[in-house]
Amino acid sequence: MSFFTRLLRSPEGAFGMIILAALVLVALLAPILFPGDPLRIAGPALLPPFSDPALPLGTDRLGRDVLAGLMHGARTSLTVGIAAALMAIVLGALVGTAAGFAGGLIDEALMRVVDAFQIVPSFLLALAIVSVVGPSLPVVIAAIALGAWADPARLTRAQVLSIRERDYVAAAEVIGMHPLEIALKQVLPNALPPVLALTSVIVAAAILTEAALSFLGLGDPNVVTWGSMIAEGRNVIRSAAFLSIAPGLALVVTVIGVYLFSEALSRVIAGGRARP
Amino acid sequence: MTEPLLEISGLSKTFVSGGRRVSAVESVSFDIRPGETVGLVGGSGSGKSTLARLLLRLTPPESGRIRFEGKDWLDLSGNALRRARARLQMVFQDPLAAFNPRATVADVLMDPLRIHGTVVPAARPKEVERLLERVGLPSALAERSVLDVSGGQRQRVAIARALATRPALIVLDEAVSALDVSVRRKVLELLVALQKENGLAYLFISHDLAVVRAVSHRVLVMDAGRIVEAATASRIIEDPQSDAAKALVRAVPKLESENDAAT
Amino acid sequence: MTDLLATIRRLSVAYGDVDAVRGLSFDIRLGERLAIIGESGSGKSTFARAIAGLLPPRASLSGEMDWPCFGRPPLPGRDLGFVFQDPGSSLNPVLTIGEQIAEGARRHLGYSASEAWQRARELAGRVYLPQPDTILNAFPHQLSGGQKQRVAIAAAISSRPRFLIADEVTSALDMVVQAEIVSLLRRLVAEDGMTLLFITHDIALASSFADRIVVFRNGELVEIGAAKAVVSRPADVYTAELIAGHIDFTTPRLVEDMP
């Protein structure tokens, strides 16, 4: 059975996949269905939802189209989530691999750096970096990734240390394989699957961190994000609660989707090791 | 008398475990001549597997000398060591653990051929077929995953991998202990046939003196890191000197039929 | 019928579409040492677990098992003791040796903590664990493989079961320790009058101390009989192959001595 069919067979996997696929579709279609800047004024201010077929979810305080904002916001959330997670995993895997293979003093030094990043709450770290360097999408992504790479680094190191001791690594050494080839062909492909399973958890956390930064006004001001929409709606939360609830719901559904998907993914990876 | 292929003298290794120094191998000395099988027998914890790892340079020794094919084996490093490894190979106990779980049988055999340039690249698939044939496996097995072949077949693949680089000596570390009885006999026969064909020497490591007796020209008994007895199998079985050898002789279960006196 | 411990009729166990054992019918006699012999994939371990009620939930079991001597299926831990192949994973790493041996006596014999500890001390002596007082307070990782298996045996018999199942208990051990464990089992079974089901791949080991031998192949029974009779006159080709495959000091050698 292929990886994907196994993933889809579990209810979590199927549900998570549906949510994520819908989200990706929305993000891809946003510029086609709602061309132009989603931050421009599209109609009268504070138009309630379902009252104008041209603006199905109404408008905010400045007369911006809420549906367009939600759809373009999905782009930002997914971009930040995926980019930050990829950065964190790549950085973590590299550092973890280096520490696991080098051992000794290099291992000690690298792991103390990992400790340092692990004890600083990742949100505070992101907050500090963005407020010092300035809010733009690449900075936000880097700031979130720096708060998230410590876990993958630790897991990669532990995996490398355990797989290095296997007989097949000794066997590769005995046939005269170069240490670099042993690392890349024998150890890493078997060490990384559980680390990759961390990706989706990091994606979900990154999406939430980005939303929180935007909520505090530290997101990129030139793109629309769910966090900034919630912050914007907060000013009129008594009269137009919908403006905060809609992006909030989008956020909740996205994070649930990512978590369900990651749950199914780790189960498939864990199951794939014990052969039927 | 021929020049020894392998000469080990005063080889020692201690491990530090929980603050205590545990001597795993203690001033071990012995020779192996070309084309002979030296059996190394001992219980678990006797140090025989550590000795194998020292010999294969998987663990650095603390002191001692190893001469292999006239060269100082412990002085080799880097590329020179990797090239020299072609002549000294190993077969592990657990055939499943000794292969990358992602590999096919062909991958396993291609690696040594590529690393040592044993044959030109174009001839490699043919050589894989030839290696499989030599260990009594069908060439169709090449494309199978190492996880999809039986235990006995897997150990034959491991032997083929060790043969690929045309070694002079193969260390067999409990190489038949995990195999079913019906398969074990055939693998032992294969090893002896390969030895006669190629003049291979073996260091045959096992905890089973009966199996060691069947395939070894000479036998070393190891206990608590030391070689406590070195003789032919017949001598050790008829007249064991050390306590370790006596225990090993006693431990071999005998098939008891109706002709035997009841115990 | 009281001389029977169990009667097994048409017992089959399947995992999904794959039959692990098929149509087994034989009796286990009270007080006998019965060896089940088979190679990997013969279903011998599945059978042991089926008998002990230790099959995983996904296994489906059919056929009949009657227990004339208990009058009901035996309770694992109380009526039967089970010793597994790998003592490294069958012992709990965070409990002391004493706690693990005492567990059965506390749970099934209603012993108090101090009585159970006393029982653990006595058992540690019976399985020849050195320095019982030190070892009862030690943890499994501090013991050698052979010592761990002695602990596992002590724990299995701590509730005084009438039936002991030993599933490949010596395959992870070296020959010398194997011989010690087998002679220990032989003595314990004789002293306590237990029935022993001894699962092994080694027909010589089985012949050296079982009363009767059952040979399994691919999930089916190929032969059953008195141990020495089976070894002397195997009725099945496969049993003959197993006997021929055995290597001891009388087996013809493949190479000669070369001093």
From TrEMBL, chain A:
Q: Which InterPro entries match?
A: BP-dependent_transpt_permease (IPR050366), MetI-like (IPR000515), MetI-like_sf (IPR035906)
Regions that span the bilayer: 14-34, 80-103, 123-149, 195-216, 236-261
Write the record's keywords in alphabetical order, separated by commas. Answer: Cell membrane, Membrane, Peptide transport, Protein transport, Transmembrane, Transmembrane helix, Transport
Cross-referenced SUPFAM superfamilies, in alphabetical order?
Answer: MetI-like
> Pfam families, alphabetically?
BPD_transp_1 (PF00528)
Can the keyword Metal-binding be found in this entry's annotation? no
Say where the protein is mainly found: membrane
Q: Which residues form the ABC transmembrane type-1 domain?
A: 74-262
Q: How does it sit in the membrane?
A: Multi-pass membrane protein
Subcellular localization is given as: Cell membrane
Give Gene Ontology CC terms.
Answer: plasma membrane
Is Transport given among the entry's keywords? yes
Q: Name one GO biological process term.
A: transmembrane transport
Q: Which family does it belong to?
A: Belongs to the binding-protein-dependent transport system permease family.
Give the protein's recorded name: ABC transporter permease
TrEMBL record, chain B:
The protein's superkingdom reads Bacteria
GO BP field: transmembrane transport
A GO molecular function term, named singly, is:
ATP hydrolysis activity
Keywords, A to Z, come to:
ATP-binding, Nucleotide-binding, Transport
The record's InterPro entries line, in alphabetical order, gives: AAA+_ATPase, ABC_transp_ATP-bind, ABC_transporter-like_ATP-bd, ABC_transporter-like_CS, P-loop_NTPase
Q: Does the keyword Magnesium apply?
A: no
The answer to whether the entry has keyword 4Fe-4S is no
| Ranges for domain ABC transporter | 6-249
The record, for PANTHER family, names: D,D-DIPEPTIDE TRANSPORT ATP-BINDING PROTEIN DDPF-RELATED, TRANSPORT ATP-BINDING PROTEIN
User: What family does this chain come from, according to its entry?
Assistant: Belongs to the ABC transporter superfamily.
Protein name per the record: Peptide ABC transporter ATP-binding protein
Organism name: Metarhizobium album
Lineage start: Bacteria, Pseudomonadati, Pseudomonadota, Alphaproteobacteria, Hyphomicrobiales
TrEMBL record, chain C:
- Which organism is the protein's source? Metarhizobium album
Q: Which InterPro entries match?
A: AAA+_ATPase (IPR003593), ABC_Ni/Peptide_Import (IPR050388), ABC_transporter-like_ATP-bd (IPR003439), ABC_transporter-like_CS (IPR017871), P-loop_NTPase (IPR027417)
Q: What is its main location?
A: membrane
Output the Gene Ontology terms for molecular function: ATP binding; ATP hydrolysis activity
Q: Which family does it belong to?
A: Belongs to the ABC transporter superfamily.
Supply the alphabetized keyword list: ATP-binding, Cell inner membrane, Cell membrane, Membrane, Nucleotide-binding, Translocase, Transport
Residue stretches making up the ABC transporter domain: 6-243
What's the protein called, per UniProt?
Answer: ABC transporter ATP-binding protein
Stored Pfam families: ABC_tran (PF00005)
